[in-house]
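Researcher: For the record, we're logging two predictions in this thread. I'll number them. Prediction 1 follows.
Model: Prediction 1, sequence and structure:
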Amino acid sequence: MVLFIASFILMLGISQAFLDDRCHLMTVSDLSKLTQIIDMPIPDGCTAGEGNLLLEAKLTTADSVLCIEESWATMLGAVKEVTGGSNKPMAMPTKDSPSCSSKPSSHLQVMLSAEDTQYYMTAFKYSIKKIL
């Protein structure tokens, strides 16, 4: 099973839960939607912060990995596997080489962090790949 997203636009969202700083933005992606646009305003008074997006997939079997793929405007600062409480850095995706979580699981989680110089958006693809 491979599930592709044409492109995922994110304007990193939902504050107040991330490090108790309302200017640090975070949201969770619903991977059941084929295309999703997340539009989150920066809270009034915030002039700097960080942005993170948690990609999360809950599957019926523990035989798949989550891969991040480059798209037309992929600008990420970091990609980390956080499945099961881990915090393992992953390679940055490139045109010819997606970055995939290391262990198959039924509850896949990958954290994407904004690039320091990226101001308002990024686009990327993801795929859930079954390991045979």
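Researcher: Logged. Prediction 2.
Model: Prediction 2, sequence and structure:
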Amino acid sequence: MALIKRRRFILVHSTSNANVTDDNMEPYHISTYRRTTSMPPLPRLSSANLIRQEQQHCSSHLVSKYQRRDKDEALTNKLYKLNMHTMRKKSARISMRLSSAFGLSAHTIDERFNFEEQRFRAIDKFLRLFVRNAYTCMEALKETFVTQVNVAEDFEELLSDKMPDLPQQFTRSKRSLLENAFTEFCTHMESCVANPINTLIKLFVLPSNLISKRHDKLLDYDSAQSAYEKVKDQQSRQAKQVLDLAKKTYEALNSQLLEELPILYEHSCEILSICLKAFISGHLRLMQHMKTNIQYVLNLLIHINN
């Protein structure tokens, strides 16, 4: 068996590698390792195969590029049509709202829905004001207690030589009021007042959106009704279809809100009543802690004077 050295590769001539070329030749150390183990032959691609794969990759890239461009153009066209349709609907709603405001056209009025919407808006506004004022109250009380602790520390520093016991007890009582009683009050307010009301406010978002959508559909219905009254005979069928669809959509939203808004209002009033009672009880408990704290300091002062 003859060995031929070629370009740092050693080619072993035998009957099993008679068709070996420069493209599929493997190094000697890999060939030896493969023969002593069960390692399969390493795949080696010829230059022609590499060129063919590169061409296929380029062609597939071009095809996918043009397909993606076609999809983008189709999507752009759809978005353009959608925007034009939306603009036409919004302009029709604005013109209908203006004409109704100036009394130039008839406007559908539902007294029952207006009453339910007013109640919904009123309790939504009250919930937001209540939770904001509750946080404002907590911040004001915190500032008050911190100021009391600072004043007590100043008294302790000033009177530590003359009467050390009273200033120390006074400072300790004010710190206990801030760290214990006020912390308990804040925890009670968060869990029993702020969190339920914030959750209730989040639940009001969807009905509010539905009410806005209902007003838009009402404008569409009034606009379609006005257009149906003005069209000619040959266009009456198409206008009647548009009117029926607008009426059906408006009445569906209107009936859904008339059914759900009273239920939401009643449950919201119940939750609000519970939160208001929790706020009053928490504030009363905090005032009792403050009274006990002040009474303790006064008893110390009376004992020292006696």
